[in-house]
Write a structure and sequence with these properties.
The complex is a heterodimer of chains A (253) and B (648). Chain A has 253 residues and is of the alpha/beta class. Chain A contains eight helices and ten strands. The longest helix of chain A is centred in the last third of the chain and has 17 residues. Chain A is globular and about 50 Å long. Chain B is of the alpha+beta class and 648 residues long. Helix content of chain B is 66%, strand content 9%. Chain B has 21 helices and ten strands. In chain B, strands 3-4-8-5-7-6 form a six-stranded mixed beta barrel. A four-stranded antiparallel sheet of chain B has the order 2-9-1-10. Classes of the chains: A alpha/beta (253), B alpha+beta (648). Chains A and B meet through helix 2, helix 3 and helix 4 of A and helix 12, helix 19 and helix 20 of B. Chain B: Belongs to the ABC-4 integral membrane protein family. Chain B: InterPro entries: ABC-4_Integral_Memb_Prot, ABC3_permease_C, ABC_permease_BceB-typ. Chain B: Keywords: Cell membrane, Membrane, Transmembrane, Transmembrane helix, Transport.
C-alpha cells in the first residue's frame, strides 16, 4: 500500500522576474513500512522536498497524496488537522520545548487528539521503554544528553502512530555512538511497528540503515538505490560510490 | 550602504517594534510639559483658596521625572540587550566601538528628540485641557487661556536632555564592556535556565503567601484597639509594609513556581496546549522577573490606594463638612449674626436660626473610656468637653442625673472608644456633679470650633446645665459661649448666601464658618491631590505596562522556535493563540490582582480617616486602573499573534 504519493512537484521561490526553481518535477512514492532516505549535496533541494512533502511548505505545482488524501490545496486549518493525525516529525535541532519535561514533551501530540489520560500513559510507557528513555521522564531537556534528546524527539513522533514520520537530519547534531544508537532504534521501530519513515540526511552511514535511498541533485531525482537482500556494509559501499559520482562540481562548461 | 543609510534603516525597523516606547516617551514628555506649564501659569496662583497649587504641581513634576527616567533607562537596557547581536556583527565587520556608539547615539537622537518635540507640542496643546480638568476637579471656575510658556519649554528640554545624556552614558558603558563574543552570547546568559524545583523554592513560596496573609490580617486589626500606643501602631504599620512587600517578592520568586508545579504534577505529564503555553512558561519566567514585578505591584498598589483614598475624601467632602459644620452657616456673636441676617433679608433669602448656649466643662470620663491608648496628650480624668442643655436639642428630655454624648468623630472614636454606659463626673469651678452616662448619639450639633475638633458634645438636663453655668471655670471657656446656626430654607440659594457671606467682613473671623465653603475647600485640596496622583499613577501605569509589554516581546522572540515545533506538530494558530491568551491573563493578571488586593487591604484599614464612603470610590478607581492596564495585555497578545503567524 502506498502511503505517500507525490507526482511532478515543482517548487520555486522568488517572483516572476527573479525566480529560482528548487524542485523541478519530482515523483516519489513510498510504501507502507518503508524506511526511505533522501540524500543530496547542500542546496540540492532535499530539505525543501521534505518540507513540501510534510505540508510545512506549499508546492508550486504537482500533487501530494498521503494515506490516499490529497494534501495540496488544503487550507491552513485542514493542514494542521492533517499533521496532527497523520504526520510525525524528528528534527536536527531536537526541537523539544525547554520548559516541559521529557514526558510532557512526548505526550504533546496526544493532547491534541483527546486521548484519555490512561491510554496516553500506556502509550508513553511503551514507546519510552522501547527507546530507553523511560527513566528520564521527569527530567528537563537541558538535563539530558543530545542523544537522549533526539530519542525523546523520536518518541514524540512515534507516540500517536502517524502514517508517516519525517526526519530532517536526525543524526546531524549527534556523536557517532549516539547516532548509531538512534538509527538502530529507528529501524527497530520501523520493523516492529511497521512505521513508515522518510529521512533526509547527508550522512551515508545513516542512509545505510534505510531500505531505499533516493539521491537528489539540483532539484531532480538523480538515482535510487534499493537495499534488497544486501548487507548493510555492502549497501553502505554502494551509497558511497553513488555519492562520489554525484558529488563534486562539474567542469564541463 | 553609508552609515546614514544604516541609521535610517534601523530607525524604520525600530519604530515598528518600539512604537509603544515612542508612545510612552511622547506621553511622558507631554505630561511633564503640561505640568510645568501649569506650574508657571499665572492663573494657578490666582486660583483662590489656600491651596498652593503651583508648589504641589512642582513636586509632582519631580516625581514624574523620577518615574520617567527610570522607565527610559530600563527600556533602553532591554533594547540594548536585544540588539547585542547586531552590535556584535558591526564589530565583526570592523566597525570600532566608538563608531558603533556614534551610530547608536545618532539613531537614538533622532528617535528621542523627535518624540520630545512631538511630546512638547502635544503637551502644549493639551495643557489647557489639563488645566480645565484640574479646575473641574477643584470645583473652581477660572477662565483659562492657552499660553506658550518659554520657561516650561526650556525646563522640559533641559530635563530630557539630561536623561538623554544618561542613556547615552549607559549605552557607552554597555558597548565598552562587551567583547564580540559576549555580545553574541548576552541573550542566552540573561534568561535563567530551567531548573528543578528546589526545597528552598518551596519554602520561599510558602513563606511568601504566609507573609502576605499575615500583613493583610494585621492591617485589618490595625485600628481595632489591639495596638495601644503610637509606637506600637507605628511598628505594626512598618511590619505590614515590610511583610507585604517581602511577601510579594517571595511570591513571585517562589510561590508562582510552587503553585504551577503542583498543578503540573497533578496532570502527570499530560498537558494540553493551554497549559503548555501558559503554566510551563510562567513557572520559570516569573521568577527571573521577581524584583521588577514586585516594584510594579507595590507601586501600582500605592497608586491605586492613594487614588482611592483621595477619591473617598473628595467623594465625602460634603458629608464630612456637614459633620464639621452642622448648619449652613455657623456664627459666634450676635452682632455678626445680625449683620449677616440683614444681608440675607436684603437679598430676600429665607433662613432659619438656631441659638445654642455652649459652656466648656472639665469632665472625668475615665470610667467610660474603653481604650488602652496611653500616649494621648490628654487626661481622661480631666477632659475639656462642650456642654449644652437638653432644651437646645429637639425631642430630648433627660433627667437631672443623666448625660448623653452626641457627635463623635470617627477618627477620634477609633483612637479612644467609649463604653456603652457608666458614671462620669462634670467638674465646675468649685464642685463636681456626678452623672450617669447613657450612651453616644450619631447626630452632630455643634461645629468643630466648639468641640475641639471632634470630641463629643455633652448633653445634660436644663437644671444641671444652669448649675454648671453658675459654677463655670473661666480659664477653659472659649471666646464665645454662643453658637448661632443659620440654615437657608431654599437649598438652591445656599450658594448665593455663601457669596454674600464671603463678601462680608464677618467671614474673615475664624469662628464664623460656612459649610459650603468648607466642603469646597476640601474638594479643592483633594481635587488637586487627585489630579496629581491620578496623572502620576497614569504615567506609572503607562510606563510599567510598556515594560511588561517589552518583556513579553522578548519572551515571544525566545519562544518562537517552540511555536514552530507546535505548529509542525499540528496545532493551529488559533490553538496557540488561545494558550497565549491564557498565559497573558496570568502574566498581566497576577501583578494586577495582587496590586489590587494589596491596595484593597491598605484602603480598608484606614479609609475611615478620609471619608464616609468606601466602596463606590474604590471600585471606580480599580475599574479604571484595570481597564487601562488590560490594554497592554491585549497589545501583547496581538504581538504574539504576529510572532505565531511568522513561526512556520
Amino acid at each position: 500500500m502506498r502511503i505517500l504519493e507525490a507526482t511532478k512537484i515543482y517548487k520555486s521561490y522568488g517572483n516572476k522576474f527573479n525566480k529560482q526553481e528548487v524542485l523541478k518535477g519530482i515523483d516519489i512514492s513510498v510504501a507502507e513500512g518503508e524506511f526511505v532516505s533522501i540524500m543530496g549535496a547542500s542546496g540540492s533541494g532535499k530539505t525543501t522536498l521534505l518540507n513540501v512533502l510534510s505540508s510545512i511548505d506549499q508546492v508550486s505545482h504537482g500533487t501530494i497524496h498521503i494515506d490516499g488524501k490529497e494534501m495540496t490545496g488544503m487550507k491552513e486549518k485542514q493542514l494542521a488537522e492533517f499533521r496532527k493525525n497523520h504526520l510525525g516529525f524528528i528534527f536536527q535541532e531536537y526541537n523539544l520545548l525547554d520548559t516541559l519535561t521529557v514526558k510532557e514533551n512526548i505526550l504533546l501530540p496526544l493532547s491534541i487528539t483527546k486521548v484519555s489520560k490512561k491510554e496516553a500513559d500506556q502509550k508513553f510507557k511503551e514507546v519510552a521503554i522501547e527507546l530507553g528513555i523511560y527513566d528520564l521522564k521527569d527530567k528537563y531537556p537541558n538535563e539530558i544528553s543530545g542523544g537522549q534528546k533526539q530519542r525523546t524527539s523520536a518518541a514524540r513522533s512515534f507516540i500517536h502512530q502517524p502514517s508517516i514520520i519525517f526526519a530532517d537530519e536526525p543524526t546531524g547534531a549527534l556523536d557517532s555512538k549516539s547516532a548509531s544508537d538512534l538509527l538502530n532504534k529507528l529501524s527497530e521501530l520501523n520493523q516492529k511497528r511497521r512505521a513508515t519513515i522518510m529521512m533526509v540526511t547527508h550522512d551515508p552511514v545513516a542512509a545505510g540503515y534505510c531500505s531505499r535511498v533516493i539521491f537528489i541533485k539540483d532539484g531532480q531525482i538523480y538515482t535510487q538505490l534499493n537495499k534488497g537482500e544486501e548487507t548493510r556494509q555492502a549497501f553502505f559501499n554502494d551509497i558511497m560510490k553513488t555519492q562520489a559520482v554525484l558529488g563534486g562540481v562539474q567542469n564541463e562548461h | 550602504m553609508s552609515i546614514n543609510h544604516l541609521i535610517l534603516r534601523n530607525l524604520k525597523k525600530n519604530l515598528k517594534n518600539y512604537y509603544l516606547y515612542v508612545f510612552a516617551l511622547i506621553f511622558s514628555v507631554s505630561l511633564y510639559f503640561a505640568f510645568v506649564t501649569l506650574q508657571y501659569d499665572p492663573s494657578m496662583n490666582e486660583a483662590k483658596g489656600s491651596v498652593k497649587g503651583a508648589a504641589a504641581i512642582k513636586t509632582a513634576a519631580i516625581l514624574l521625572i523620577a518615574i520617567v527616567s527610570i522607565f527610559l533607562l530600563y527600556a533602553n537596557q532591554l533594547f540594548m540587550k536585544r540588539r547585542s547581536k547586531e552590535i556584535g556583527l558591526f564589530q565583526l565587520i570592523g566597525m570600532t566601538k566608538g563608531g558603533i556608539f556614534r551610530l547608536l547615539s545618532a539613531e537614538n537622537f533622532i528617535l528621542y528628540f523627535s518624540s520630545l518635540l512631538i511630546g512638547i507640542f502635544i503637551g502644549f496643546s493639551s495643557s489647557k485641557l489639563m488645566m480645565m480638568i484640574l479646575f473641574k476637579f477643584m470645583g473652581l471656575e477660572t477662565s483659562t487661556t492657552l499660553q506658550f510658556s518659554e520657561e516650561a519649554f526650556i525646563q522640559t528640554l533641559i530635563v530630557f536632555c539630561a536623561i538623554y545624556l544618561l542613556i547615552m552614558l549607559m549605552n557607552y558603558l554597555f558597548i565598552k564592556r562587551q567583547t564580540i563574543l559576549s555580545l553574541f552570547r548576552v541573550i542566552s546568559s540573561t534568561e535563567n535556565k530551567v531548573r528543578k524545583i528546589s526545597v528552598f523554592e518551596i519554602v520561599f513560596g510558602a513563606m511568601g503567601i504566609v507573609l502576605i496573609l499575615t500583613g493583610y490580617y494585621i492591617s485589618s486589626k490595625l485600628f481595632d484597639g489591639d495596638f495601644t500606643t503610637m509606637s506600637e501602631l507605628f511598628i505594626a504599620m512598618s511590619f505590614i509594609l515590610g511583610s507585604v512587600i517581602i511577601g510579594t517578592y517571595l511570591f513571585y520568586k517562589g510561590s508562582v513556581t510552587f503553585i504551577t508545579n503542583i498543578i503540573r504534577k497533578k496532570k502527570g505529564g499530560y498537558l494540553n496546549i493551554n497549559e503548555v503555553l501558559s503554566l510551563s512558561s510562567i513557572m520559570f519566567r516569573m521568577k527571573s522577573n521577581a524584583l521588577l514585578l514586585t516594584i510594579i505591584t507595590t507601586v501600582s498598589a500605592l497608586a491605586i490606594g492613594l487614588l482611592s483614598l483621595c477619591y473617598i475624601s473628595y467623594f465625602s467632602a460634603e458629608k464630612s463638612a456637614e459633620k464639621n459644620v452642622p448648619s449652613h452657616f455657623s456664627l459666634t456673636t450676635t452682632e455678626d449674626a445680625e449683620q449677616f441676617k440683614a444681608a440675607l433679608k436684603a437679598e430676600d433669602i429665607a433662613y432659619r436660626e438656631k441659638r445654642i448656649n455652649v459652656i466648656q466643662v472639665n469632665a472625668n470620663v475615665a470610667e467610660i473610656m474603653d481604650t488602652k491608648l496611653k500616649e494621648l496628650n490628654f487626661d481622661p480624668n480631666n477632659m475639656t468637653l462642650p456642654v449644652i442643655s437638653d432644651q437646645s436639642v429637639k425631642d430630648l428630655n433627660l433627667s437631672k442625673d443623666e448625660t448623653l454624648f452626641t457627635g463623635y468623630n470617627d477618627i477620634v472614636e477609633k483612637i479612644m472608644s467609649l463604653k456603652g454606659s457608666g458614671q462620669i463626673e462634670l467638674k465646675g469651678q468649685r464642685e463636681s456633679i456626678s452623672q450617669k452616662y447613657k450612651g453616644l448619639e450619631k447626630e452632630f450639633i455643634l461645629p468643630y470650633n466648639f468641640t475641639h475638633g471632634g470630641l463629643p458634645v455633652v448633653i445634660v438636663d436644663e437644671t444641671t446645665f444652669r448649675h454648671l453655668k453658675n459654677d463655670i471655670n473661666p480659664k477653659i471657656q472659649l471666646e464665645s459661649s454662643l453658637y448661632i446656626g443659620i440654615d437657608i430654607k431654599d437649598k438652591g440659594k445656599i450658594e448665593e448666601a455663601n457669596n454674600i457671606f464671603q463678601d462680608m467682613t464677618i467671614s474673615k473671623h475664624p469662628t464664623n464658618l460656612s459649610r459650603l465653603e468648607m466642603s469646597n475647600n476640601q474638594k479643592q485640596v483633594m481635587g488637586l491631590t487627585m489630579f496629581i496622583v491620578g496623572f502620576l499613577g497614569l504615567t506609572f501605569l503607562v510606563t510599567s505596562g510598556c515594560i511588561l509589554y517589552f518583556k513579553q516581546m522578548d519572551e515571544s522572540e525566545d519562544e518562537k522556535p517552540n511555536y514552530t515545533v507546535l505548529r509542525k506538530l499540528g496545532f493551529t494558530q488559533g490553538d496557540l493563540l488561545k494558550g497565549i491568551q491564557a498565559k497573558q491573563l496570568f502574566n498581566f493578571g497576577i501583578p494586577l490582582v495582587i496590586g489590587l488586593v494589596h491596595s484593597y487591604f491598605a484602603v480598608k484599614s484606614g479609609w475611615f480617616l478620609f471619608g464616609t464612603e468606601l466602596w463606590t470610590p474604590m471600585i471606580v478607581v480599580m475599574i479604571i486602573y484595570t481597564s487601562l492596564y488590560s490594554i497592554f495585555g491585549l497589545l501583547s497578545v496581538l504581538y504574539y499573534k504576529k510572532v505565531i503567524k511568522e513561526a512556520l
